[in-house]
Amino acid sequence: MIQEENTIVSKANNIEEVRIESKYQAVRNQTEKLCKPLKTEDYVVQPIQDVSPPKWHLAHTTWFFEQFILKPYKKDYQIFNDAYNYIFNSYYESMGEKMLRDHRGNMTRPSTEDVYQFRAYVDQQMLELINSSQFNAELEKLTELGLNHEQQHQELLITDIKYILGSNPLFPVYQQKPEGHHTPLATAQQEYIEVREGVYTIGYQGKGFHYDNEEGQHQAYLHNFRILNRLVTNREYLAFMDAGGYENYDLWLADGRDFVRQHHINAPQYWHKIEGNWFQYTLHGLKKVDLDAPVTHVSHYEADAFARWQGKRLPTEQEWETVSHLARYHQNLHVLHQANFVESNLFHPQALQADTTTETPAQMMGDVWEWTQSAYLPYPFYKRVEGALGEYNGKFMSSQVVLRGGSCATPESHIRTTYRNFFQPDKRWQFTGIRLAEYF
Amino acid sequence: MIQEENTIVSKANNIEEVRIESKYQAVRNQTEKLCKPLKTEDYVVQPIQDVSPPKWHLAHTTWFFEQFILKPYKKDYQIFNDAYNYIFNSYYESMGEKMLRDHRGNMTRPSTEDVYQFRAYVDQQMLELINSSQFNAELEKLTELGLNHEQQHQELLITDIKYILGSNPLFPVYQQKPEGHHTPLATAQQEYIEVREGVYTIGYQGKGFHYDNEEGQHQAYLHNFRILNRLVTNREYLAFMDAGGYENYDLWLADGRDFVRQHHINAPQYWHKIEGNWFQYTLHGLKKVDLDAPVTHVSHYEADAFARWQGKRLPTEQEWETVSHLARYHQNLHVLHQANFVESNLFHPQALQADTTTETPAQMMGDVWEWTQSAYLPYPFYKRVEGALGEYNGKFMSSQVVLRGGSCATPESHIRTTYRNFFQPDKRWQFTGIRLAEYF
Amino acid sequence: MIQEENTIVSKANNIEEVRIESKYQAVRNQTEKLCKPLKTEDYVVQPIQDVSPPKWHLAHTTWFFEQFILKPYKKDYQIFNDAYNYIFNSYYESMGEKMLRDHRGNMTRPSTEDVYQFRAYVDQQMLELINSSQFNAELEKLTELGLNHEQQHQELLITDIKYILGSNPLFPVYQQKPEGHHTPLATAQQEYIEVREGVYTIGYQGKGFHYDNEEGQHQAYLHNFRILNRLVTNREYLAFMDAGGYENYDLWLADGRDFVRQHHINAPQYWHKIEGNWFQYTLHGLKKVDLDAPVTHVSHYEADAFARWQGKRLPTEQEWETVSHLARYHQNLHVLHQANFVESNLFHPQALQADTTTETPAQMMGDVWEWTQSAYLPYPFYKRVEGALGEYNGKFMSSQVVLRGGSCATPESHIRTTYRNFFQPDKRWQFTGIRLAEYF
Amino acid sequence: MIQEENTIVSKANNIEEVRIESKYQAVRNQTEKLCKPLKTEDYVVQPIQDVSPPKWHLAHTTWFFEQFILKPYKKDYQIFNDAYNYIFNSYYESMGEKMLRDHRGNMTRPSTEDVYQFRAYVDQQMLELINSSQFNAELEKLTELGLNHEQQHQELLITDIKYILGSNPLFPVYQQKPEGHHTPLATAQQEYIEVREGVYTIGYQGKGFHYDNEEGQHQAYLHNFRILNRLVTNREYLAFMDAGGYENYDLWLADGRDFVRQHHINAPQYWHKIEGNWFQYTLHGLKKVDLDAPVTHVSHYEADAFARWQGKRLPTEQEWETVSHLARYHQNLHVLHQANFVESNLFHPQALQADTTTETPAQMMGDVWEWTQSAYLPYPFYKRVEGALGEYNGKFMSSQVVLRGGSCATPESHIRTTYRNFFQPDKRWQFTGIRLAEYF
Questions:
Q1: How far is A88 from chain D (nearest CA, A)?
Q2: pLDDT in tens, B179-209
Q3: Chain C: closest CA distance from residue D192 (Å)
Q4: What sign does the dihedral D279-D282-D284-D289 (CA atoms) show?
Q5: What's this model's pTM, rounded to 2 decimal places?
Q6: Which of A134, A378, C227, D92 is the most exposed, having the fewest neighbouring CB atoms within 10 Å of its CB?
Q7: Contact yes or no for B40 and C41 at CB 8 A
Q8: Tell me, what's the ipTM?
């Protein structure tokens, strides 16, 4: 769901523990903090269609507050710049012409400085509104929606920045690797967790913020299955590569085979073989591949082929969610080991203390998004929401694959066991990884 | 599953009532009968990648018997022509180079006559083998598999011939419309059949021929739903068109919107507006659109948009299969009206007697393939079969949509309630239609 | 000028020695004779855009007579089939919609038989017209234009048939090689013919049939140059290949380098390396490359790169024409050796008697079309002709290169020293070759 | 010749009046002055392949001095950054891998600031070298070549900046229009200058700097022709548009027709119809089209079609050069009126004084580049220069069209009557215009 144009209609009806004002400021500041390491030039480009310029993310998330809250609800609100609606509107076809996604990388104006001014202006206006008598429960919900929307874009900011810097032959460092940071995954033994067949409840069940596509408790019948307690590592993936996995066509989906052939793919994205050794571009720069870290930046096709090579399969999203619930609520269940794979510590400062992690529930989440074998489809009773915000609610439910979990680039408060992320099966620029499953 | 390159591994272990020899001759003759109306020129071309030349279908189905039965099992078998393996092998990457699909339409040689000689030669050899002491249960299974493979290609022959003739400005007639043939659909009242929620059994349960992808009984939890007793008609679809359905972007999946835009699609395939009236190319030639006939030659995108416009949705494949079983085994259930939409009477002679049809069970099948909302994915416990035949078993389980039922071009003996046909959501050259469903 | 859509307006004002009726029959019969070796399937396909189906050539040349002569001039003429104007009209945008060139290969109807009936009908009508009192000088001119148009298509028929059969993995034979046919080129010593600088007259100067683009005598200043007495041979071209000519980027025009790279070209078209030996598909089937025959089926880029490798260049069209005139009118000039390279003897039966050829003037012509270094541009005073026939007169005078001479596929009566053939520099399916020149 | 990758080998053997040091500083400073109005973001992008990022131009011109002068000739020279050779090398295939042109716009690093430091470093080194005893005639020639190379890129800088800003919906102003600037073209009467047929001398004849492609005096025979004394105006071009010129297919070259159709072109580049009026993006921002100014930003196809519509043609480059010489050396010849069309006054400050212009010789030059009808081909005796600099000398002599004159973006010292600029016939982002000619 971190996809740029995706379902953002929520049903936020929980009691906010954090006051909305602080939350607003925290999220908005975090976005700008993520951009601190950038040079002005980095804000502008769009090397592939999937990747939006950081400047665009900064402005688009701001436009959201102007368009859906300030303009319709704030008294006497003055639009910052009429042209911005045209330039920074990403999706809503019903609201005026949109700039073609492909041309975002050509828009040198408004400048980055102009965009920061736009942010400052909207922030000031939003804070005025929040502190006014006008601000009611409905506006709070919309604000929270805007903040969740911005958090999605925070993840995209990181993956897009990684792409922009990672396709530069100078391999610039975004952030220095913290001292003493290491990955304890090597010590995690492969272990399979078994789940018995039966009817399980799926879907969001609480009262907090969530998206419409995860809403609607419903039943699903699961058959006996096992799932691996940890993610597939680079070491394991390298064994697949060395065994000729990319060339063994029996292992691949037909589309996947065409994809790796056509693009001459023989390793995860950002991998470079230099004088016989595999290196990987990370946000800390070009590094030797860490064999004990989870493999990431693989497409669904590669995840599927790897699983087949292992005589296993990817889990369904229902299996994933069920195991995740069990892991969360039953401390006596075998604990899933966390990889502590943290390329960026912007969201997960605590993840650096490896020794604490075994006590954390919901261990399956936070390293990489995990490809499932499930197509992204509506849950039973799902209805597209009416109106401008809802225009596009279910519109991506075609030819995409669900990912579960969350990655080191996902804001922590944004991770839920019911969260349904989705991408086309060939996408590799997100932090995507592999977890194995099988029936028994 | 009529897709050319698809799952063909079966588990045929039933007691054959018809002797295999008669069956072999019947199926092989039927293929040639389908080609009788063609001129030599019609056998050669490939106007789009999806459509194979009829000559290729004739040869490829024959090559299958030579490659998988005669060559490995018949003593002293002489290959008809070594080059044919290269030219008529459609898929099996592990068995020598394959001709690129795109170039099939450039192969003027071997000639059609040569191909018919190839067929005659292989038929003679097969009949010798069938009547020899060498012919055992395993060979019978393989033979039956080859015949089912050929039946799939019979359906493709019809849809491909329709495409070849239908894109010709002279709109040639393939077959004259039989006298007195009419469609009683207009009298069928819309009625919704309700099914209560619970755990249902899905998958092939008998002992007859079936494909591996429909195998494996398993449970699925269905929620309360209703399904329409008949297919959507041209009249209803025209109302959608007249209401601006193609331009109302709220109704469309994002991919679907791009698809109709890019290809300037504003009606089902083969429809032509001539002096204000809608005509439709059929195998009987260009005809005024029959408003009471089921709409056909629509993509999944169009089916989905139409359903949304109606405030409904497409059924899942599990719902479809469940209703189909109920319709089959419970005569007191409200009977589904059959459309008796028969563009080609080559397979369904009895369908011309409209009055008899209400007595037929499994009424949902035989008019058009019905788009579901289900992605084509493996059933629980599904395993790819090993070896050359099995190489590609699950390889299409990505980005495709399941269709259920069967069409006027499907051999009748090839229709099963558990049959899983599948195509990419933009495909329109098959006989594809729409049935509505909803939760309650 | 053998290009399908090209300048066909002529100024035929000579006294015809051969009666027009005989000529009409001879040319029309010759077209059908060229198709005799074909199977019905061969008539239909269009493997690349440049190559038209033989059926289309047969019909298009016939349509020309119907459209421009019978329809406007023959009393009470009944159109054979209205739809044919749409299907077989290749170019004239002002005369009704044209079928896209790319789709010619999908038109299985009208059948080849229908097209032959179309030809017979038009021939009968034309002969009636020719023998009627209605037939005047203007109609005779138009008829002659139609016949020259058909002769252009005869050459295309041969090259297109070669492409269709030559891209078939069975390498079918179009015509058996005649007994005793050989190429005496090996004995021809390289010799350079020198021409002194000065003002030379260029352009058609006689009274016979010619095209508008060669018309208009005018002056051109030529500088001292030499030109080779014979064509470049396969032996010489192979030396270029063996010396790494295709990989030596210094030798290539930038566009040419991109072209050979993108299409992985490393030899002339139709060349195949089989077990270490070079073979060449010819109309006689797949044959070992004849080292003493002229190299053919090379693009302008390859011709240019070869010449640069030799420290030479291609001649300009003015140089070529000037030398050709000198060779023609001055018997005491050193005679150019003819290659007697005859892949097809359909037009040049006498070419089989090698000993007679040295007596023939205009020796430069008849083996392969020779790439010049001249862009195809209008001669001084050139004016586009008005009206439908003239619509496209100069419209190809952009980004094309002039070829001079004529090939073994060019009807002999169609060869003139002033004839300006032209193609894009990447075209290779015509019989195209290389002659070297240099300044001194 | 302002094309980025073009012929840059010169034969500079004149006595320099300006000392090379001053010249070096002047040219280098001018490049940076041109970039003064830019924001950092503007330096980075590449909206189409033809347009390079300004940052790239700044670095590439600097790389030239490092690569061809400092590295091979300056003692103990330290390369500024090894990676820059890879990143800023535009063409020389023989010198290490080149970045694909298409990816220039994705290179956010090195930053603009880094590039300015690169410039400062190289400038310091170059000045040291120039003032050292090491600096000899050969190095001076190379330096001059580097400066001419940089001047070419100055023109590209302006046209590329115009494209970058002009495709931005905010239409940013690059430079305010100077007060009192106007175009006196309206008063210029159309007048045709006649030239008598005969042999004329073509090619560079002096001793100053020039490129190899204009070198080599030679003779050309010209026929009687007339040429218009001024450029075609927007008013005249608008009449062509209003008369349906873009839709009248008789007027177009076949390639041109396809080009305008495919790209939906119906006006010069940068023209926008806003509420019924034509506006034009200029470096001064969006302005109403000035009817008396010369039309610019048209392709060769449009120029050719316009000329045909007028019953005229484009001049050949030989005609253009001949008239230009006559205009230059014969003050009593009818003077060509200069348009004084000056969108950018960075190079032509004097052009603002309209009243002085009639006294200037060589009036044909300085407004817009003028499309000729000549293909870009080698002059007689032209030889590609050996070695790295010469690798690509003639490599663009294919499928391009010669332009003559020079534009308001061309450095004045870079304009010569013999200068051969060239572009593909579809290019429109340069300042290109139309002058009419005809035979008589």
A1: 12
A2: 665 554 544 677 888 999 999 999 998 888 8
A3: 17
A4: negative
A5: 0.90
A6: A134
A7: yes
A8: 0.89
